Amino acid sequence: MAGGVKESVSGGGAGVVAKRALRAELRAQVVVLGGTLALLWLIELVDQIAFHGRLDELGIKPRTLRGLIGIPLHPFLHAGLPHLAANSVGLVLAGWFIVNRRRRDYFLVWLCATLLGGVGTWLIAPAASLHVGASGVVMGLMGFLIARGFFERRVFAIINSVVMLLIWGGGILRGLFPQEQGISWQVHLFGLLGGILVARLVRTRRPR
Question: Is this prediction's pTM over 0.85?
């Protein structure tokens, strides 16, 4: 009897620990994604209220010395609240799939999509254009999710990548071949490549 009680208590303790770990993980995910959105919305509200949108001038201006500052800054600047709202949806949805697996990868995709997307856009986008917005990062997150399984070559990861392709593939094609003026396919393309690059760099291969 005593042994049975001890085993029951031990099992209950393990369950409590597991629940605490789950709650801690969920809180961390909320902090990462919620913090990202809070920062983006704070910057845009300050820009709209205090600067009347003039902060967008800090975006990428191709092949100009002044436009170099836009390489690290462009994901944090948006052409109005509707622009930010559209990107926020993609950041949360695609970001959660990555944060749920490994938070480090989320930040790596942000960094690589920002830098590669920014440099590529600065190099090849039309002169006298201005590029702002986190859509390149969103494309990077999508690219990471789609490419990860093919680099890892694990059955579950490949299935997950196929599902991600079915979910995001149409959005990626629309981003690369936009039908509307004012959409930067250059940021989208190089941001996507940044996400794919991170998937290649952080892959975990199945033991042979």
Answer: yes
Exposure string for 131-160, b = 16+ CB within 10 A, e = fewer: bbbbbbbbbbbbbbbbbbbbbbebeebeeb
Neighbours of 57 (CB within 10 A): 15
> How does DSSP classify residue 203?
-
Q: What is the CATH number of domain 2-201?
A: 1.20.1540.10
Q: pLDDT tens for residues 72-91?
A: 999 999 999 999 999 999 99
* CA distance readout (Å), 16 to 62, 100, 156: 55, 21, 29
Q: Note the pLDDT of residue 12.
A: 63
Place of tokens 């609240």: 81
Residue ranges of the domains in the chain?
Answer: 2-201
